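call fold(seq) -> tokens
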Amino acid sequence: MLSAIILWMLVWMALGVCFVAHAQPQAPSAPEQYINDWSDEAVYQMAVHGIPASITLAQGILESGSGRSELAAQSNNHFGIKCHKGWDGERVYHDDDRRDECFRSYSHASESFHDHSEFLQRNRYEELFNLKPTDYVRWAKGLKKCGYATNPKYAHLLIDLIERYDLAQYDEQGLALKADREAFAQAEQTQQAARNEVLKTVQNKGMNPAKTSLSIGRRSVQTSENYIQYVLAESGDTYDALAIELDLMGWQLYRYNDINRKDGTYTPSPGEVIYLQPKRSRGQTLWLEMRPEESLWEASQRCGVSVKALVRKNHLAPELPRPANGRLSLRWRLTKDGKLPNWARMIRGPNS
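ret:
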């Protein structure tokens, strides 16, 4: 009798362990984590460049080992992009087809996605853009046909990844975002024409141009001197809550304001500028004098020029987050000694 009771106790204990083990949520696999991290970027690239997001994600998973290859982990290069002629950025060297081949190194992996999209704009891949952007099968086979990879199973590997992880859903998101961007561009063009008329009128009257404003719900939407719409943060605002209130996609406010969404929910300070449109690649003025203790991001928010553009124009780096003289070029990329290029000085004059 005692042995039977002990046996039943052991059975129930075993069942309890099984239930507990079953209840434990499984961590996402490496490809699933990669998709979580980079699907927004792939959707954005599709909206801008027309390359199916499913193809971009599958290529990223395959070519970077889900972001864990040495080149991806140390150099943020997810697509094995080599230096090629004209590359003036950071570089690293790895053995590939030959020993010590030159590969591009990026400060952020999103730059690798951008270069991958631009790489596929070459004439060699021109025929791919005649395909439907949701036809990932033909895109995969077309890449192989155009010589993107030497592996005879390359197209099959991409298709298998797309279907295993249901990556085609991101192609639909890319098309939706493209439609939104086109509608936004049309609205922006109309608004710009209206602004030009206002500017022409006030200039004819000898007045200073006024900033236009409108309202979304209870929010007053202003237009910056660089012609970007923005709102001012109020106490308790978060980017995620504002995106819902202003009918934007969650990632848009983060991208437009150079905030890393992966760091968690961002809480802006009351009165802080929050752009509702992408910042520009150049400013309305030639220079911006940085304030004491002002970060590069704060300067970017003040002038409406993206951090990435400021970094490239002013040759900045993590160890040099602001120019020594505190003066940022907003229009042209400076020479490495911090001066305007010769042709720009010829236009602007020697004292520019």
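Confidence is low (pLDDT under 50) at residues 19-23, 205-210, 345-352.
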